[in-house]
Design goal:
Keywords: Coiled coil, Membrane, Transmembrane, Transmembrane helix. The structure is a single chain. The chain is mostly helical and 324 residues long. It has seven helices and no strands. The longest helix has 119 residues.
Length: 324
């Protein structure tokens, strides 16, 4: 009787062991299927994120190239305008110098004619000589004033040329700094997209693990897999959670870096150049002169009025000399 009970107990234990083995095999197949689906989803997500990242990079590169082309075109136009203006100023200076030389020659000629006439008359009244001397002194004073105005105009033109050169150098420096900032922003955006992609994939993996965990009871997993595999999957879950937390922190740090990186660097650079009051005034004047159409026209009108006044004075002096 006892032997039959032992045999029945042995058969029951064997059946229970076979049932546990079958349950373990079923759980193992479910886990393998879940892992396979997880790998497929990860590959699909990676492919999609890679395509999105590639499209974003291509679009960003295209926009940067268009912006750089537009900036180069604007700079080229401004350089051409400055060269044209410089050539016009040089031509005007040469024409005024030629006019001044002609007037000097005419004054010298008429002065010599006056001396010759005085010698022919045999030294008439001293009043005529005194009047001629006074007019000659007045003429010399006016000529010196015109020469001073011409030298002042040349100094102003040289100062404007210096300010233009300074503006070009500052503009090139700003363009270089903007390119560096754009490159840093692109790298930061790439790192942010990569971290978001990795975080999303890890989140999906964690969701899959949670789904498998909720679908299968812990007791069944412990019975079918054993204690070591259960501990392995628990450690893996904890590692994935820590990695997701680390990537979230990295994403927040990159977002803060992107918010800090922008026009603040350029404004800080412009505000801390270390230039004096005179340099700031000259830089502002040069920038306003060659950027504002109204100021350029006003400057041209000013030059036109100044040269017209100089030509009128020279003509008036020449006509007075001819009358005498």
């Amino acid at each position: 009787m006892e032997e039959e009970e032992l045999k029945a107990e042995i058969r029951r234990l064997e059946q229970q062991q076979l049932a546990q083995m079958r349950q373990g095999a079923i759980l193992q197949s479910k886990l393998e299927e879940a892992q396979r689906q997880q790998r497929e989803l990860q590959q699909d997500l990676k492919a999609r994120h890679a395509q999105v990242l590639k499209d974003q990079q291509e679009e960003q590169m295209r926009r940067e190239q268009e912006a750089m082309a537009q900036l180069e075109e604007d700079l080229q136009k401004r350089l051409e305008e400055l060269r044209t203006r410089e050539v016009e100023l040089e031509k005007s200076l040469r024409s005024e110098q030629t006019r001044k030389n002609d007037l000097d020659d005419e004054v010298h000629y008429w002065r010599s004619c006056g001396h010759a006439l005085l010698k022919r008359t045999g030294g008439q009244e001293t009043e005529v000589l005194e009047e001629a001397a006074k007019k000659e002194i007045d003429l010399q004073v006016e000529m010196k004033a015109l020469e001073a105005q011409g030298s002042e105009l040349r100094i102003r033109i040289k100062e404007v040329e210096r300010m233009v050169a300074l503006g070009r150098a500052q503009e090139v420096e700003l363009v270089t700094k903007n390119q560096g900032l754009l490159h840093c922003l692109a790298l930061a955006q790439q790192k942010q997209v990569a971290s978001q992609t990795k975080a999303a994939s890890l989140q999906v993996e964690l969701q899959k693990v949670e789904a498998v965990k909720t679908a299968v009871s812990p007791e069944a997993i412990e019975e079918g897999l054993g204690q070591e595999e259960v501990e392995y999957w628990r450690r893996k879950k904890q590692d994935k959670a820590l990695e997701v937390e680390r990537l979230s922190h990295e994403e927040r740090r990159l977002k803060a870096l992107l918010l800090r990186s922008g026009a603040a660097d350029v404004t800080e650079y412009l505000s801390t150049r270390g230039c004096g009051m005179l340099d700031e005034s000259i830089s502002w004047f040069a920038t306003s002169l060659f950027k504002s159409a109204f100021i350029r026209r006003a400057f041209c009108v000013h030059l036109f009025v100044l040269y017209s006044w100089i030509v009128f004075l020279l003509w008036f002096i020449s006509s007075r000399t001819h009358e005498k």
